[in-house]
Design goal:
Elements lengths: L1 H6 L6 H9 L3 E5 L6 E3 L12 E6 L2 E7 L9 H5 L2 E3 L1 H18 L11 H15 L1
Antiparallel strand pairs: 1-2, 1-3, 3-4, 4-5
Length: 131
Amino acid sequence: MDRWLWAARFFKTRAQAKAAIEGGKIDFLSTTTNTMRHQKPKVSKEIATGDMLCIRRGWNSATVLVTGLAEQRGKATQAQALYEETVDSIEAREAVAARRKMERAGLRVPASRPSKRDRRALQKLKQEDAS
């Protein structure tokens, strides 16, 4: 598994891939058997085409379907042919990126409506800006 993650260019080195697997950053869903079973994989786990992996790196999480196998690291175009990211994963990743971008710009969506005290504080602030 660490070799495939390295060859698919999810990690720069096999040591980083191994650390991610051992740290619980990789989830494995085997579809080769009749039932889909969620497993915490080992570094030496053999993967096959049709298996699904959930890979968490930093703020991003990607669910990918294994479409090809590789023993060696190749070009980026070859690496992208080894997997296919699910539509749900792409949408979730883009939504998280948009939310983080808005938060960096200073917009934070409140969890609830402002209270009467909060509304009065906003009105007072607006009156001070106007004068």
